Amino acid sequence: MEEIGFYLPALYLPWMFKLIWTGLIEKFQILKFGRYRSSIILLQILTAITILSLSIWQLGEQLSIFVFLVFTINLWSSMQDIATDGFSVFLLEKSEKGWGNSVQIGFFWIGYIVGGGLLLILLAKTNWSLSLRLMAFIIILITIPVLFLNQSSTPDNRKTIKNWESILTFIKQPKAKLVLLMVSVYRLADGFVRSILPSLLSDWGLGFQQIGFFLGVIAPIASLLGAIIAGSLVNILGRKWSLLFFGSLQIITAISYLILCQLSYVSLVSLSVVIILDHIILSMVTVAIYSVMMDLSRKEYGGTDYTCQDCMGIFAIIIGSSVSYLLAGKFSYSVNFIFMVPVVVFCVYVSIKLYSSITNEGIL
């Protein structure tokens, strides 16, 4: 356990520093497949090969080998994330980005259910090696459609760019700092529930199996529903009203958890309702801000621009999570949720004002 605790933080490093890989992704191109698609195909193959290598490792063997291979899988995945986002920015028109992000987030949660639940069931029924080989086969299988995409739908980047050129040109844009600030402020409130929810459920007396059911089954299904709702509303409401409306719904999340904190006994039914509501709203907020982030990304450097914004958003969520832990630890969960209400109001108001300034639209 001590070894796992020592190695675990290292597995997140590729995601924390994925901005570093943007230059490589913007640069890499096999002429036949074009930019982004070349990276997606290559990284899918590398991921499958690494998973096959991992299938040879057995429990009880040297843990450092396991950590290295999982780290490598995370590295390939973080790089592919840049390529996929850049490809989405290039392919999708503004009217398609709402549903595009809805599908992206929806399938993330489907993958979460399949990978986190069904794969564990398969692992129990078969064995480690066979499960991972099947996973590698599925990765190759879902790569095949990418091979047959129309060439006209793939960005072409014949010119050679320096590794940091795309990042520097993004930062030098007149309103880049406002864009990064807007994304950071909007995502700040996300951390006030996400980080403390497992410990909150534990303190309410739920066991590991119940927590796993709520966060591994109910929450992903609710998030999938939220993504579908948001996808159908983003274009109808428009970007600014989506940010305002979806973001403001987080007040309901805070109040709902606050009410549960006041109860002497939290029933599973009431907890289910609040968790479903919370994750529906979370997905709606995510679809809204992701759609805006795509809008504000240049088509020629979509991977870089989107990743710059995404990294700032993640940093803001980490800050929100830290404040949440501090408030819950020093005072109580109730104080955390009370504090979350003005934070949501502040974040939504400031982000809408910044968005209006960036797009030269009126505040309302």
Description:
With 364 residues, the protein is an all-alpha fold. The chain folds into two domains: 2-148, no CATH class; 165-358, Growth Hormone, Chain: A (Up-down Bundle). It is 79% helix and 1% strand. It has 17 helices and two strands. A two-stranded antiparallel sheet has the order 1-2. A hairpin with a 3-residue loop joins strand 1 (29-30) and strand 2. Helix 4 runs antiparallel to helix 7 (128-147) and helix 6 (94-125) packs across helix 15. The radius of gyration is 21 Å and the shape is globular. The protein starts with a helix and ends in a 5-residue tail after the last helix.
Q: Which key phrases capture this entry?
A:
Growth Hormone, Chain: A; 2 domains; 364 residues; two-stranded antiparallel sheet
Sheet/helix structural class: mainly alpha
What top-tier CATH class of the largest domain fits best?
Answer: Mainly Alpha
Quaternary structure type = single chain
Low-pLDDT regions = none
Number of helices: 17
Instruction: Give the count of structural domains.
Output: 2
CATH superfamily of the largest domain: MFS general substrate transporter like domains
Please sum up the structure shown.
With 364 residues, this protein is mostly helical. It has helices at residues 2-11, 13-16, 22-27, 37-56, 63-91, 94-125, 128-147, 165-171, 176-187, 191-194, 197-203, 208-237, 239-248, 250-262, 268-295, 302-330, 333-359; strands at 29-30, 34-35.
